[in-house]
Specification:
Rossmann fold; four-stranded mixed sheet; 18 helices
Length: 492
């Protein structure tokens, strides 16, 4: 055992003790967070505009601070971009995380020094809790790769601007820098295709032990490694590869394909980082769900999805959540986001401790006929039926076909795979969807819809689509389902 590995085990035990301080008193931790946030907020323009004082309690908070998305927050962000201080948080942000926007174009999400510190602390906690539970610290002595966006940052009004993963690259602890790959030069390549090829060349002869990234882009890296090396599995190239850290999308639909590429089942650590804050991370290989991060300077609110589009949706704090209910997650953060709806939906699988699964996006659903099919359902159905048929796929997307040339409307599933879709696969998939969604079942039985149709796509079609949108690689993710055919028509 190397010195770093030995030290990591000691740090892991210490980290477990630290996490248990807030894990065992979640309500106290959230109350303390709200108290701190309001004490700072009362000195800012936003706090003054909304009548916030250090004594504001949660019932008052819900009355004073309306729910808002980025478009509603933007007037305050614009003032920061123009050089004003103490607008959403004390002073000015350390960074702006630049993400893909909608009606406002690119989004600029403020991140304070406290915000970036919380991002690094949560990532460290996830790794150390894994070590504490499993005893595996050997990956610390080898090389680690983080597939991420470019670390090159812009500057505006003295504020650094970049992608979240690029910002985080500037804060990797010194003791990991010698183990970390790829090199700064390779990581700075903007073209994703060229970047992956360069990473392959740079890492193929290295002792890689931990690999981290969004699953579809790691899959792309693995496939190119195998093609370049002529090997059959990743474990032949990296025999000591033992941990896969991932986030950004649900891993289950990718799992069988990834394990086939790797050539073995290995431990994985799932994380839920966002530009708005590091929300949750996997703290156990044995328990379902991700531990809600209550040590991130975030006061959480939750809105039942069924109430979200009401004029006055019901808002609750952590102590009132119910296991098994779908919620829109709302953030109030030490980076200056208030009543902020990030667009994700989550479901609690445990309340002691509070663990969640990400079930989808508020904007990613199909309800062209009132069926309200969500990501959790299509991903669950695809994972189960693909496993049953031993069918490996690269990616998939679901969209409604409202006006077919003939026959009843249907849901069209675009599936990319190197093999042919097995006979009976679409029928089994439709049966599973009916089992998971009673509204969908009623529409099928009532002959409003006909059973789903699977459309096969050649390998590379999804990457070609993402490339055409300027979203190949990095933190970009393809929506699994859509209520229109904007993506579907481009894929077909």
């Amino acid at each position: 055992m190397g010195l770093k590995s030995f030290a990591a085990k000691w740090l892991a035990r210490r980290e477990k003790s630290k996490v248990e301080l807030w894990l065992k008193k979640p309500q106290y931790a959230q109350n303390e967070t709200l108290s701190y946030l309001t004490s700072v907020l009362e000195t800012t323009d936003f706090g003054i505009d909304h009548g916030i004082t250090s004594n504001t309690n949660y019932d008052q908070w819900k009355t004073l601070v309306p729910l808002r998305d980025y478009e509603a927050l933007y007037p305050y962000v614009e003032r920061i971009l123009e050089g004003e201080l103490n607008v959403l948080w004390k002073g000015k942000p350390a960074y702006f995380c630049k993400t893909s926007g909608t009606t406002s174009g690119a989004k600029y999400i403020p991140m304070s020094d406290e915000g970036i510190e919380a991002q690094i602390k949560a990532a460290r906690s996830a790794l150390l809790l894994y070590i504490n539970e499993t005893g595996n610290s050997s990956f610390i002595d080898g090389k680690m790769i983080f597939l991420q966006g470019s670390p090159k940052l812009e500057k505006k009004q003295g504020i650094s601007i970049g992608r979240l993963s690029g910002i985080v690259a500037h804060h990797v602890p010194g003791y990991l820098q010698r183990n970390r790959m790829p090199s700064w030069e390779t990581n700075s390549i903007e073209d994703w295709e060229k970047k992956v090829d360069a990473i392959v060349d740079e890492t193929m002869s290295q002792d890689m032990r931990l690999i981290s990234g969004i699953p579809p882009w790691v899959q792309m890296y693995f496939e190119r490694l195998l093609k370049k090396s002529g090997k059959k599995t990743i474990r032949e190239i990296f025999p000591k590869f033992s941990v896969f850290a991932h986030g950004g999308v649900n891993y289950e639909p990718y799992k069988s394909t990834m394990e086939k590429l790797i050539g073995a089942k290995i431990d994985s650590i799932e994380t839920y980082p966002a530009s708005e804050g590091f929300i949750a991370f996997q703290d156990s290989q044995k328990e379902q769900g991700l531990l809600l991060n209550l040590d991130a300077g975030i006061f959480y609110e939750f809105v039942p999805v069924e109430d979200f589009h009401n004029e006055n949706p019901r808002r609750i704090s952590l102590e009132d959540v119910v296991v098994g209910v779908n919620y829109a997650i709302v953030l109030n953060t030490s980076s200056g986001l208030w009543g902020y709806v990030i667009g994700d939906t989550v479901k609690f699988v445990s309340s002691a401790p509070y663990r969640i699964t990400v079930t989808g996006r508020l904007k990613h659903f199909i309800s062209a006929f009132g069926e309200h099919v969500i990501a959790e359902e299509v991903e669950g159905a695809m994972t189960e039926i693909a496993s049953k048929f031993q069918f490996s796929f690269t990616e998939f997307h679901v969209a409604p076909q409202v006006a077919p040339i003939e026959g009843l409307p249907y849901h069209e599933w675009f599936v990319e795979s190197s093999s042919t879709v097995p006979e009976g696969f679409d029928s089994a998939l439709d049966d599973k969807m009916q089992e998971l969604n009673s509204y969908y079942k009623d529409l099928i039985k009532g002959k409003v819809l006909r059973p789903l149709k699977v459309t096969e796509l050649p390998v590379g079609r999804f990457n070609s689509y993402m490339d055409s949108q300027g979203k190949l690689g990095g933190q970009n993710k393809l929506p699994r389902l859509s209520n229109d055919r904007n993506i579907a028509d481009k894929l077909s």
